[in-house]
Amino acid sequence: MAITYAFCCLFFSALNDFIFKLFANSSAGGGGAKKRSCGLFVTIVGLVWFVFMVGLPHAEGTTLRATLTWGAISGLLSLVSNVLLIESMGYQSAGVSSTIFRLNMVLVVIGAFLFLGEPLTPFIVAGVVCAFVAVMVFIPKRTADAASQDIEKAKLGFTLAVAASVLRAGMGLSYKYAFSHQADVNGVTALNALCWLLGGVLYSLIREHRLSMPSKHDWLIGVTSGVFVSGIIFFMARMNACGNASVVNPIAQMSFLGTFLLSAVFLKEKLTKQKIIAVLFGIGAIIFLTI
Q1: CA 219, CA 37: separation in Å to the nearest integer?
Q2: pTM for the full predicted model
Q3: DSSP string covering 22-80, please?
Q4: Does the pLDDT of residue 79 top 70, yes or no?
Q5: Could you give the CA distance from residue 3 to residue 59 in angstroms, rounded to a whole number?
Q6: In angstroms, rounded to a whole number, what is the distance separating the alpha carbons of residues 189 and 75?
Q7: Amino acid 31: pLDDT
Q8: 165 FRET partner, CA 20 to 30 A, in 77, 84, 176, 179?
Protein backbone atom coordinates (compact mmCIF):
# COMPACT_ATOMS: atom_id res chain seq x y z
CA MET A 1 0.00 0.00 0.00
CA ALA A 2 2.90 2.37 0.67
CA ILE A 3 3.78 2.50 -3.05
CA THR A 4 0.12 3.18 -3.90
CA TYR A 5 0.05 6.03 -1.38
CA ALA A 6 3.28 7.43 -2.87
CA PHE A 7 1.80 7.47 -6.39
CA CYS A 8 -1.36 9.13 -5.04
CA CYS A 9 0.87 11.79 -3.45
CA LEU A 10 2.69 12.19 -6.79
CA PHE A 11 -0.65 12.57 -8.59
CA PHE A 12 -1.94 15.28 -6.25
CA SER A 13 1.42 17.12 -6.26
CA ALA A 14 1.54 17.22 -10.05
CA LEU A 15 -2.03 18.52 -10.24
CA ASN A 16 -1.44 21.13 -7.56
CA ASP A 17 1.70 22.49 -9.24
CA PHE A 18 -0.34 22.74 -12.45
CA ILE A 19 -3.06 24.63 -10.56
CA PHE A 20 -0.35 26.97 -9.23
CA LYS A 21 0.67 27.67 -12.83
CA LEU A 22 -2.92 28.31 -13.91
CA PHE A 23 -3.29 30.77 -11.04
CA ALA A 24 0.05 32.45 -11.87
CA ASN A 25 -1.14 32.94 -15.47
CA SER A 26 -4.52 34.30 -14.37
CA SER A 27 -2.90 36.64 -11.82
CA ALA A 28 -0.69 38.30 -14.43
CA GLY A 29 -3.41 40.79 -15.18
CA GLY A 30 -2.64 40.98 -18.88
CA GLY A 31 -5.01 42.23 -21.54
CA GLY A 32 -6.76 44.58 -19.17
CA ALA A 33 -7.78 41.78 -16.83
CA LYS A 34 -7.79 42.39 -13.11
CA LYS A 35 -4.66 41.14 -11.39
CA ARG A 36 -5.58 38.38 -8.95
CA SER A 37 -4.29 38.29 -5.38
CA CYS A 38 -1.70 35.64 -4.56
CA GLY A 39 -2.27 36.27 -0.86
CA LEU A 40 -6.01 35.68 -1.17
CA PHE A 41 -5.38 32.49 -3.11
CA VAL A 42 -3.01 31.20 -0.41
CA THR A 43 -5.56 32.08 2.29
CA ILE A 44 -8.30 30.03 0.63
CA VAL A 45 -5.92 27.07 0.19
CA GLY A 46 -4.94 27.36 3.86
CA LEU A 47 -8.59 27.50 4.95
CA VAL A 48 -9.49 24.27 3.11
CA TRP A 49 -6.32 22.59 4.38
CA PHE A 50 -6.97 23.70 7.98
CA VAL A 51 -10.56 22.42 7.92
CA PHE A 52 -9.24 19.07 6.71
CA MET A 53 -6.51 18.84 9.38
CA VAL A 54 -8.07 20.35 12.50
CA GLY A 55 -10.34 17.39 13.26
CA LEU A 56 -7.66 14.69 13.00
CA PRO A 57 -6.58 12.97 16.25
CA HIS A 58 -3.31 13.76 18.02
CA ALA A 59 -0.77 11.10 18.89
CA GLU A 60 0.19 10.17 22.43
CA GLY A 61 3.68 10.93 23.72
CA THR A 62 3.90 14.30 21.98
CA THR A 63 4.43 17.69 23.59
CA LEU A 64 2.49 20.91 23.01
CA ARG A 65 5.63 23.09 23.14
CA ALA A 66 7.44 21.16 20.41
CA THR A 67 4.28 21.04 18.29
CA LEU A 68 3.66 24.79 18.54
CA THR A 69 7.31 25.75 18.02
CA TRP A 70 8.01 23.56 15.02
CA GLY A 71 4.53 23.95 13.61
CA ALA A 72 5.12 27.71 13.44
CA ILE A 73 8.66 27.40 12.04
CA SER A 74 7.81 24.81 9.38
CA GLY A 75 4.58 26.66 8.59
CA LEU A 76 6.42 29.90 7.88
CA LEU A 77 8.92 28.08 5.65
CA SER A 78 6.06 26.30 3.87
CA LEU A 79 4.15 29.54 3.32
CA VAL A 80 7.07 31.57 1.94
CA SER A 81 8.44 28.73 -0.22
CA ASN A 82 5.08 28.12 -1.90
CA VAL A 83 4.40 31.83 -2.42
CA LEU A 84 7.80 32.07 -4.14
CA LEU A 85 6.94 28.99 -6.24
CA ILE A 86 3.68 30.58 -7.38
CA GLU A 87 5.43 33.88 -8.14
CA SER A 88 8.18 32.06 -10.06
CA MET A 89 5.58 30.46 -12.34
CA GLY A 90 4.50 33.92 -13.42
CA TYR A 91 7.91 34.33 -15.09
CA GLN A 92 9.04 30.76 -15.82
CA SER A 93 7.44 27.60 -17.22
CA ALA A 94 5.57 25.32 -14.82
CA GLY A 95 7.81 22.38 -15.69
CA VAL A 96 11.03 24.23 -14.88
CA SER A 97 9.72 25.76 -11.64
CA SER A 98 8.20 22.47 -10.48
CA THR A 99 11.36 20.45 -11.20
CA ILE A 100 13.62 22.88 -9.34
CA PHE A 101 11.17 23.00 -6.43
CA ARG A 102 10.93 19.20 -6.16
CA LEU A 103 14.72 18.85 -6.12
CA ASN A 104 14.59 20.36 -2.63
CA MET A 105 14.86 16.76 -1.50
CA VAL A 106 18.56 16.85 -2.38
CA LEU A 107 19.07 19.88 -0.13
CA VAL A 108 17.25 18.03 2.65
CA VAL A 109 19.72 15.15 2.30
CA ILE A 110 22.69 17.55 2.48
CA GLY A 111 21.19 19.37 5.46
CA ALA A 112 20.48 16.10 7.23
CA PHE A 113 24.15 15.15 6.81
CA LEU A 114 25.46 18.52 8.01
CA PHE A 115 23.06 19.20 10.89
CA LEU A 116 21.43 15.91 11.88
CA GLY A 117 24.35 13.51 11.49
CA GLU A 118 22.72 11.32 8.83
CA PRO A 119 25.10 9.31 6.56
CA LEU A 120 26.28 10.51 3.14
CA THR A 121 26.85 7.58 0.75
CA PRO A 122 28.45 7.58 -2.74
CA PHE A 123 24.98 7.19 -4.28
CA ILE A 124 23.75 10.25 -2.39
CA VAL A 125 26.75 12.21 -3.65
CA ALA A 126 25.91 11.10 -7.21
CA GLY A 127 22.33 12.24 -6.66
CA VAL A 128 23.50 15.63 -5.43
CA VAL A 129 25.73 16.02 -8.50
CA CYS A 130 22.87 15.12 -10.86
CA ALA A 131 20.58 17.64 -9.13
CA PHE A 132 23.24 20.36 -9.40
CA VAL A 133 23.67 19.67 -13.13
CA ALA A 134 19.88 19.72 -13.64
CA VAL A 135 19.58 23.15 -12.02
CA MET A 136 22.56 24.50 -13.97
CA VAL A 137 21.07 23.30 -17.27
CA PHE A 138 17.83 25.10 -16.42
CA ILE A 139 19.57 28.49 -16.10
CA PRO A 140 18.10 30.69 -18.86
CA LYS A 141 20.59 31.44 -21.62
CA ARG A 142 20.53 34.26 -24.13
CA THR A 143 19.80 33.15 -27.70
CA ALA A 144 19.61 35.00 -31.01
CA ASP A 145 15.81 34.75 -31.23
CA ALA A 146 15.08 35.52 -27.56
CA ALA A 147 14.15 39.03 -26.46
CA SER A 148 16.24 40.57 -23.69
CA GLN A 149 13.09 41.18 -21.61
CA ASP A 150 12.04 37.53 -21.90
CA ILE A 151 15.47 36.35 -20.74
CA GLU A 152 15.33 38.65 -17.70
CA LYS A 153 11.87 37.35 -16.79
CA ALA A 154 13.05 33.76 -17.16
CA LYS A 155 16.07 34.47 -14.93
CA LEU A 156 13.81 36.03 -12.28
CA GLY A 157 11.51 33.00 -12.40
CA PHE A 158 14.53 30.69 -12.09
CA THR A 159 15.88 32.63 -9.09
CA LEU A 160 12.50 32.57 -7.33
CA ALA A 161 12.18 28.82 -7.94
CA VAL A 162 15.65 28.16 -6.47
CA ALA A 163 14.81 30.29 -3.41
CA ALA A 164 11.52 28.39 -3.04
CA SER A 165 13.37 25.08 -3.22
CA VAL A 166 15.87 26.13 -0.54
CA LEU A 167 13.11 27.22 1.84
CA ARG A 168 11.11 24.05 1.13
CA ALA A 169 14.21 22.04 2.06
CA GLY A 170 14.32 23.99 5.32
CA MET A 171 10.75 22.91 5.95
CA GLY A 172 11.69 19.28 5.32
CA LEU A 173 14.59 19.50 7.78
CA SER A 174 12.36 21.15 10.39
CA TYR A 175 9.92 18.24 10.00
CA LYS A 176 12.73 15.72 10.54
CA TYR A 177 13.83 17.51 13.69
CA ALA A 178 10.32 18.19 14.99
CA PHE A 179 9.01 14.65 14.72
CA SER A 180 12.08 13.27 16.46
CA HIS A 181 11.53 15.70 19.36
CA GLN A 182 7.93 14.82 20.33
CA ALA A 183 6.09 17.17 17.97
CA ASP A 184 2.66 15.89 16.90
CA VAL A 185 2.39 15.24 13.14
CA ASN A 186 -1.24 16.31 12.76
CA GLY A 187 -0.75 19.27 15.07
CA VAL A 188 2.26 20.53 13.13
CA THR A 189 0.54 20.23 9.75
CA ALA A 190 -2.62 21.92 11.11
CA LEU A 191 -0.45 24.84 12.25
CA ASN A 192 1.14 24.88 8.78
CA ALA A 193 -2.32 25.33 7.31
CA LEU A 194 -3.06 28.11 9.79
CA CYS A 195 0.15 29.86 8.69
CA TRP A 196 -1.11 29.76 5.10
CA LEU A 197 -4.52 31.08 6.14
CA LEU A 198 -3.18 34.02 8.15
CA GLY A 199 -0.02 34.53 6.10
CA GLY A 200 -2.02 34.95 2.92
CA VAL A 201 -3.97 37.80 4.50
CA LEU A 202 -0.75 39.51 5.64
CA TYR A 203 0.79 39.05 2.17
CA SER A 204 -2.26 40.70 0.59
CA LEU A 205 -2.04 43.69 2.96
CA ILE A 206 1.75 44.17 3.05
CA ARG A 207 2.92 43.07 -0.42
CA GLU A 208 -0.16 43.59 -2.59
CA HIS A 209 -1.65 46.52 -0.60
CA ARG A 210 -5.22 45.28 -0.98
CA LEU A 211 -7.72 42.90 0.55
CA SER A 212 -10.93 42.21 -1.33
CA MET A 213 -13.72 39.65 -1.31
CA PRO A 214 -12.87 36.57 -3.39
CA SER A 215 -14.68 36.07 -6.68
CA LYS A 216 -16.23 32.79 -7.81
CA HIS A 217 -13.08 32.08 -9.82
CA ASP A 218 -10.90 32.77 -6.77
CA TRP A 219 -12.93 30.35 -4.68
CA LEU A 220 -12.93 27.69 -7.41
CA ILE A 221 -9.19 27.66 -8.00
CA GLY A 222 -8.35 28.18 -4.32
CA VAL A 223 -10.62 25.39 -3.05
CA THR A 224 -9.36 23.07 -5.81
CA SER A 225 -5.76 23.68 -4.77
CA GLY A 226 -6.74 23.32 -1.11
CA VAL A 227 -8.22 19.88 -1.81
CA PHE A 228 -5.06 18.85 -3.67
CA VAL A 229 -2.81 20.12 -0.86
CA SER A 230 -4.91 18.21 1.67
CA GLY A 231 -4.54 15.11 -0.50
CA ILE A 232 -0.77 15.58 -0.63
CA ILE A 233 -0.57 15.80 3.17
CA PHE A 234 -2.97 12.86 3.67
CA PHE A 235 -1.10 10.46 1.39
CA MET A 236 2.34 11.71 2.44
CA ALA A 237 1.59 10.87 6.08
CA ARG A 238 0.31 7.42 5.21
CA MET A 239 3.09 6.47 2.80
CA ASN A 240 5.69 7.37 5.43
CA ALA A 241 3.75 5.54 8.13
CA CYS A 242 3.67 2.17 6.33
CA GLY A 243 6.60 2.32 3.90
CA ASN A 244 10.32 2.92 3.63
CA ALA A 245 10.85 6.68 3.52
CA SER A 246 13.89 6.32 1.22
CA VAL A 247 11.64 4.65 -1.38
CA VAL A 248 8.26 6.37 -1.13
CA ASN A 249 9.49 9.97 -0.87
CA PRO A 250 11.53 9.91 -4.12
CA ILE A 251 8.53 8.43 -5.92
CA ALA A 252 6.33 11.28 -4.67
CA GLN A 253 8.97 13.83 -5.72
CA MET A 254 8.68 12.63 -9.33
CA SER A 255 5.52 14.75 -9.56
CA PHE A 256 7.39 17.29 -11.72
CA LEU A 257 7.10 14.81 -14.62
CA GLY A 258 3.32 15.02 -14.39
CA THR A 259 3.46 18.81 -14.21
CA PHE A 260 5.70 18.89 -17.29
CA LEU A 261 3.24 16.71 -19.20
CA LEU A 262 0.17 18.70 -18.13
CA SER A 263 1.86 21.99 -19.03
CA ALA A 264 2.98 20.71 -22.43
CA VAL A 265 -0.47 19.35 -23.31
CA PHE A 266 -2.77 22.04 -21.91
CA LEU A 267 -0.58 25.17 -21.82
CA LYS A 268 1.50 24.35 -24.92
CA GLU A 269 4.78 24.92 -23.09
CA LYS A 270 7.72 23.95 -25.30
CA LEU A 271 9.69 20.82 -24.43
CA THR A 272 13.09 22.07 -25.47
CA LYS A 273 16.27 20.01 -25.60
CA GLN A 274 17.57 21.97 -22.61
CA LYS A 275 14.49 21.11 -20.52
CA ILE A 276 14.57 17.42 -21.44
CA ILE A 277 18.25 17.10 -20.46
CA ALA A 278 17.62 18.87 -17.16
CA VAL A 279 14.62 16.66 -16.36
CA LEU A 280 16.65 13.52 -17.10
CA PHE A 281 19.32 14.67 -14.65
CA GLY A 282 16.57 15.45 -12.13
CA ILE A 283 15.23 11.91 -12.50
CA GLY A 284 18.76 10.58 -12.10
CA ALA A 285 19.18 12.57 -8.89
CA ILE A 286 16.07 11.08 -7.32
CA ILE A 287 16.93 7.54 -8.48
CA PHE A 288 20.39 7.75 -6.90
CA LEU A 289 18.83 8.94 -3.66
CA THR A 290 16.64 5.81 -3.53
CA ILE A 291 19.54 3.34 -3.82
Answers
A1: 12
A2: 0.89
A3: HHHHHTT-GGGPPPPPHHHHHHHHHHHHHHHHHTSPPPTT--HHHHHHHHHHHHHHHHH
A4: yes
A5: 24
A6: 8
A7: 46
A8: 179
